[in-house]
Structure formats: C-alpha cells, structure tokens
Amino acid sequence: MYWTAKWVYGLNPEDIIFNTSDIGWIVGQSYLVFGSLLVGCTTILYDGLPDYPTPDLWWKMMEKHRVTIPWMAPTGVRVLRKLGAEQAKKCNLSSIQRVVCAGEVLNPDVWNWLYKDVFNEKVPVFDHMWQTEVPGSMFGYPMGDAKSLFKSDSAGLPMPGVIPEILDEYTGKRVKPIQKGILVLKNPIPGMTPTIWMDPERYQSGYWKNKLFTKGMYFTGDAAYTDQEGYIFFAGRSDEVIKISGHRIGTVEIESALVSHPAITEAAVVGIPDELRVDRSCQENNWATHPLQDH
Do domains 2-158 and 164-235 have the same CATH topology? Predict the structure, then answer.
C-alpha cells in the first residue's frame, strides 16, 4: 500500500488528498486511512453528495482546503459533468497537481471533459485499476510519467510484480493484442487477500481454480484486452460480455459510446436473449437534458 501511494499517486507529507469514496469501501480504507497515514499526508473525510446543497460543493471544498489530489470514481465525474464545467470555473483550483479516478472504467469523453474542459490540459487526470482483494494498484501510471504515458480509456500498464495474461474464455489460450479475453494474474502479488473468512475452499475455487485452464492463476473476473504496447483496456466483468451476431462486445464499450453524447449522464447496458443474434443489448440512460433538446 505504501509503495502504491508513492509509485502511482506520488503522495508526500505535504499533500492534501480529497478522496470521495465511502470509508467502508477498499479505496476508503486504503487511501482515506492507511495509505495516507503511512505517507503522512492530510486526508479529508467527507460524507454527502457532490451537488448538495450547492452544485459546486466538491469544487468549493477543493478550493477551501487547497487540495492537491482529488480522487473520484468515474460516476462522480459524470455527475460533475452533468452540473457543468462552469461550476469548477467558479473556484481557484490552482493547488491541484493531479487527479485520480478508479472504481470503474473512466469513459473517454468523461476523461476529455475533466482533462480539457475543467483543467485545460494542465493537470494529469489518470485512471487505474485494482480490486478489493488486492488493496493496491494492479494497473496504472507511474506518477513521474503519468501525463506523458496516459492513454484515454486505458487503466494503464502493469505495476511491478503484476504479470497479467489475457486468455480466451473457451480455449484458455493467450489471445493476441486487441482481442478480448479473461484477465488473470500469473502470480500472487503483495497485499493480495490470502483467503475468505471461514471459507478457504470458496477462495480456492473462485480465485485460483475458477476454470480448468486458470488453475494456479488468479482469476480477476474481468474481461479486457491489451494493445501492442501493453496498455490494458477493460470491457467489463467477464460474465457481462455479450455476443451479438458473432461479435463479442463488452457492456462498457456500449456504455462509453452512449455517455459520449452530451445529453446522457449515465448509461447501463445488459444483454438479453435474441433468437437471431444470440444476444442483443438493452440500454437504460440517465439524461442530462431533455433527450431532443438541441439535438
């Protein structure tokens, strides 16, 4: 946890971190409590909504406390985008040195809004990935090179000690770059949970023997692919990938396409059976404005 705080987030005793996660989640435990205290930086504990009682509440908190690193889930960023960049422009955010997102895929258009519209391309905004079972970043960007290395829509590169493989869900063979598959880790990594409380057999069957071809490897449950440079892109949970007319499509990919429309704040996609196509997608959208307004 300490090396992640230093390597990925570049935390120092002088930092003031505003982590909007609930303290009951692993992010809250790791970087509201333990990680920040190990480094010795100041952390802000907050319980409430981003838009009540005023739509600029989070930005005002960052200004008031001279926050150097805001940490937000992409859902929170999408809410801020709905409220408008003008809310951020009201405040002096010059203390912010970098922005961290985690918890779900950071959609490309949401990243663009935060990086370009809010921070004018002057502050690095980066996504990364880890799990409750692994309380430290598995994929991310080394803080010293975060801005130069960042790729929109990617959670980054494997961190030291993380040896990933993307496997075909049917054959178990390693897939080529850009091809989707199941993400596994070839070895345990520091901080990984060693068991499930009072249920070690479930831990073994769920994580280390989930499928015949993943025996001895850590099964993340995520569907993903890598590009030619080794960057990882997540397509959702492996049991959420849907097959439409022979094409395997991650629900996250459709959701990202939907929220790229300025009138849509949130989107949820599920697969439903279809006699002709095997599956078809069903979407639920949260509109930022009236669906036909200005479009």
Answer: no
Tokens 């980054």 sit at which residue? 156
Please write the tens of the pLDDT for every residue from 107-139.
888 999 999 999 999 998 988 998 888 878 899
CB atoms closer than 10 angstroms to residue 126: 26
Give me the residue label for tokens 């937000």: 72
Please, what CATH class does the domain formed by 2-158 belong to? Answer: alpha beta
Pick the CATH number of 164-235 from 2.30.38.10, 1.10.260.40, 2.60.40.420, 1.10.3720.10: 2.30.38.10
Distance between CA atoms of residues 16 and 45, nearest Å: 11
- Indicate whether 272 pLDDT > 80: no
Token pair listed for 63: 């200004």
The pTM of this model reads: 0.80
CA distance linking residue 3 with residue 157, whole number of Å:
16
Find residue 43's DSSP bridge partners: 17
Sorted by where each begins, the domain ranges of the chain are 2-158, 164-235, 241-287
Give the C-alpha separation, 287 to 226, whole Å: 32
Could you give the percent of the chain with pLDDT greater than 70? Answer: 86
pLDDT at 134: 85
State the CATH class of domain 241-287.
alpha beta
Q: What is the pLDDT of residues 140-192, one digit of tens each?
A: 988 766 567 788 789 999 988 899 999 998 899 999 999 989 999 999 988 89
Q: Are 101 and 127 in contact (CB under 8 A)?
A: yes
217-234 tens-digit pLDDT: 999 989 899 999 999 998
**Spatial contact of 1 and 35, defined as CB atoms under 8 Å apart:** yes
Please give the C-alpha separations between residue 221 and each of 23, 186, 208, 210, 288, in angstroms, as whole numbers.
Answer: 24, 14, 11, 9, 32
